[in-house]
Write a structure and sequence with these properties.
Distance between the termini: 63 Å
Strand content: 5-15%
Shape: elongated
Number of strands: 16
Structural class: alpha/beta
Helix content: 40-55%
Largest sheet: 5 strands, parallel
Strand order of the largest sheet: 2-1-3-4-5
Length: about 450
């Protein structure tokens, strides 16, 4: 990320010296002649580090340090001292300064000290509080995913823009994070942005930042996502939902590698890799005129297509095992074994919500399960329908509606009762409790489908 640094020093020579030592694309430096003037400057409201040299016109440095604690960014404060008064140095550190640095150090040493403190601040920003808590999926078994990840790993080592396509819930952000973590930018910040969730009038402010007073309600300056992602990766999810005006400005940033916050006259260079994603057909959007062709070409230097879960069913058993173990630990439950009938049902389901739906289903099943095996009855009932229906295939024709409905219900009841009795080893009382049916109703259905409890005992 770009580090915002404000420098307060009355001595112009000292200001110029520090500015020269800190000159870098990674540092946005704002000078001020004194701490008093600095505290009144808008830049102080949203900065990362304050470098201050005490002067006769300033208040007590301890008072200034106390005042900086209420600033929005909770900036680190570095006090420049003459290095002779050890008691003053101790007082500044006790008041909250992150360091007291002697001005008399040689340039190379002074620069090294300041840069090491700056790096500590960058490391704090690089921690990703939004990183998902769910575990990484296991190595894929399906050919489609093996080939896709092999291509993604080759792409990760470069720096070109990437467009990730796929249905909702297929794991587009997970793939973007994988690209970031396997790239030379892994030490930088990964910044995920849901473009669809940003109000149309605030897209520029969110992406590029704004200065205080830039528009009604801008009571303080705000850094944009490009600035935060400097040195790292910016993931723009639902990219098809941004307005044509914002598309033009985004294209300019991708071409010039430069952003200008709303209301500011000062542009800044940014070094960001952009990964965009959408579940829509961007080529169709280009043909319809709702998405800029030049922006599409700029984003789609490399295109990765994530297959839906129904096209990679070989991966389902491994995914289920990983998430069952994860949720058992998180929910404080025993880690159940997954029965063959449960895997068969999960593998036969169409998964319209893809991996996101599978994760929710597994969490629910682990929460409701009570035995050593993850039982089929813990799954939602929509996964229990006939596999032909779950794959989207129509019932055989010709079939009157009433007859087709009876057939579907009969097939469902047989599969449900069979798995229920298998899970309870033929103990009908326990089966009734698990299913929520009365004992009489359960016996009646077993009789209708010619199911005997004796056939399910060990």
């Amino acid at each position: 990320m770009i580090l915002r640094v404000v420098l307060a020093a009355q001595d112009r020579t000292l200001r110029n010296r520090i500015a020269r030592l800190l000159a870098s694309d990674d540092v946005l430096l704002t000078p001020a002649p004194s701490l008093r003037r600095l505290m009144a400057a808008p830049e102080a409201q949203n900065c990362d580090v304050i470098v201050a040299a005490a002067t006769p016109v300033d208040p007590d440095p301890a008072e200034v340090l106390e005042a900086t604690a209420v600033l929005l960014g909770r900036p680190d404060v570095i006090c420049l001292t003459d290095g002779e008064d050890r008691g003053e140095e101790a007082r500044l550190l006790a008041a909250g300064a992150i360091a007291a640095v002697p001005i008399g150090l040689p340039d190379k040493e002074l620069k090294g000290v300041l840069q090491s403190i700056f790096q500590r601040r960058r490391d704090l920003h690089a921690t990703d509080p939004d990183k998902p808590s769910t575990p990484a999926p296991p190595p894929p078994e399906s050919i489609a995913m093996v080939e896709l990840l092999a291509l993604a790993d080759r792409v990760a080592t470069g720096d070109s823009s990437v467009l990730v396509l796929g249905e909702t819930g297929t794991g587009k952000e997970w793939l973007a994070r994988r690209l970031h973590e396997r790239s030379p930018r892994v030490g930088g910040t990964f910044v995920p942005v849901n473009c669809a969730a940003i109000p149309e009038g605030l897209v520029e402010s969110e992406l590029f930042g704004h200065v205080r007073g830039a528009f009604t309600g801008a009571i303080r300056s705000k850094r944009g996502h490009f600035e935060v992602a400097h040195g790292g990766t910016l993931f723009l999810d639902e990219i098809a939902d941004i307005s044509p005006a914002a598309q033009g400005k985004l294209l300019r940033v991708l071409q010039d590698h430069e952003v200008q916050p709303v209301g500011s006259e000062r542009a800044m260079q940014v070094n960001v890799r952009v990964i965009a994603a959408t579940n829509r057909n961007l080529e169709e959007a280009v043909n319809e005129g709702s998405f800029r062709q030049d922006l599409y070409y700029r984003l789609a230097v490399i295109t990765l297509n994530l297959p839906p879960l129904r096209e990679r069913r070989e991966d389902i058993p491994g995914l289920v095992e990983v998430y069952v173990r994860h949720f058992a630990t998180r929910l404080g439950r025993p880690n159940p074994q997954v029965s063959a009938s449960t895997i068969e049902a999960l593998s036969g389901y169409a998964w319209p919500g893809n991996i996101r739906e599978l994760i929710n289903v597994v969490e629910r099943a682990v929460l409701l399960n009570s035995g050593p095996e993850l039982e089929l009855v813990s799954l939602p009932t929509n996964i229990w329908v006939d596999p032909h229906l779950s794959n989207g295939d129509p019932l055989p024709h010709p079939h009157p509606y009433a007859e087709a409905r009876r057939e579907a219900i009969r097939a469902f009841e047989i599969r449900y009762l069979t798995a229920l009795l298998e899970a309870t080893h033929g103990r009908v009382g326990e089966a009734a409790r698990k299913s929520g049916m009365s004992l009489r109703s359960l016996y009646s259905k077993m009789k209708a489908h010619r199911l005997r409890k004796e056939d399910f005992r060990d």
